[in-house]
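# nightly structure sweep
# worker-07 picked up a monomer target from the shared queue
# config: single-sequence mode, recycle default, output format = structure tokens
# input follows
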Amino acid sequence: MAAKAKRTKGPTVAKAPTRASDRGSAPGFARATRTEALAKIFELAIESGEGIRHGVLGIPRYGKTHHLKEVNAEAVDRGVCDWVLVHDVKRPEPQYDGTLRENVADLLARPIANDESPVIVIHPSPTTIDRPDVESIAKIGLQLGRGGHPALVTVDELYHALTTAQHWAGPSYALILREGSSQRVSSAWSTQIPQQLPTEALDLCETVAVFHLAGRSAEYASARFALPRAVADHLCRLERGEFFLVTLDGCDGRIYGPA
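# output follows
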């Protein structure tokens, strides 16, 4: 992995399923596209020449993974990253598009070829003995960034980086959140239960996409981001593929997606 792989074709990002109710389902809210959201997510990185810190909140099956696939592809397309490392262990089959490796040992033993995607999906097979952890992948991301090869470390469900609520299993991903972007190491992650995350996970993100949430998680996110009352009340009504975007300037009140 000493040199950047030549990107011949980007990872495939399937279109989010849409329904008739996806359009015009929230009267009173302005609408924007996913493309516009991606522009906001990468705006600061493009201006500063550094990386991104992006989080995604939402319950299952409302579009978090699809959104992170687009963030991965956009990071490479915009030249923010040479490499993307994805921790993808939740399901028996890979959820993300890219070059598959079972763990870090497999990645080191089989370097990425020039005709393979620079989006590297770390996903164990049923027979993998050493299941990949976030710490080992985050270490590789730091090594790449510090070695002059900008990287994005994406964690599908950030609880995989924790031992218990609000406690990191290892120091490396927390270090990426605190200092990584200045070292050209970006972070992107998702979670279903934001109140269980360590403080810096939310405090240090420049952008957070908030998909469908309800109950205590919605209450926590609403208070944490000081969401306008109308936005907070609508979190539990967001359709699949729809989200609000929180930036350093706050929430603009627009619903992004599903198109």
